[in-house]
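User: Batch of two.

Assistant: Item 1 of 2:
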Amino acid sequence: LGYKTRDPIRGSDSFAAFEEVLAYSKWRQADMLLLGGDVFHDNKPSRRTMHQAYDLLREYVLGDEPVSFQVLSDQRDLEGRRGQVNYEDPHYSIGLPVFAIHGNHDDPTREGGQEALAALD
């Protein structure tokens, strides 16, 4: 997300593609969505990029739909999540769980790399 955001023609392409994936996942009642790396084009995305990502996730991920799978590994090992995945937290209403694997653009070992993905948690 956030590729060529200043370009008047291509600026919204990454968000349109992301929305298409989210909408299709919701329509097909997917059990979960796995993002296979490089969620963001930059490891320090702009505020505009972050806000658009929040808005899309809020629209397609939040909901009352039942989650039909369970994480079997010890969730206490989840860094920064207070010991459980967010869709099992009673204070969240997650209808479409999204899991992201960091890529080289959002590598958590680089400066600022951890904050962008963690902010979407």
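Item 2 of 2:
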Amino acid sequence: MRNATVACFDPTIDQNRFAQIGGTGDSRLKFFQIGLGPVDGEINFYKPTNPTLGSMVSTPGLSGFYKQPSITAPVRRVASILRDLGDKHIDFLKVDCEGCEFSVFTEEGIGDLLKNRLASPLQVRS
């Protein structure tokens, strides 16, 4: 996969922040300010009450996170993103979408998109 194009999706940061954390310098690295999600639309994200924890989550009511949404951000299903980008398949998929991992991997048709491909283990938060 030496010549692979890597697409990064994060609705909680912008292109400038992506560049600050090292996301520039290679034309094969693409950034999109949308998230992977269970729907084509918008979902709420919740900030941690301890700012050193970093990431927001999309699951309401988790211990250690504010009860009211911090932002509402755009998300798209994997199949929709592939269609929009004109891609036919995924060679490798790493998902850390702050609480929506299960819905991404259970999306209708995802098995066909990932057939004989690599996918990262799910991250599970309790």
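Residues 121-126 have pLDDT under 50 and may be disordered.
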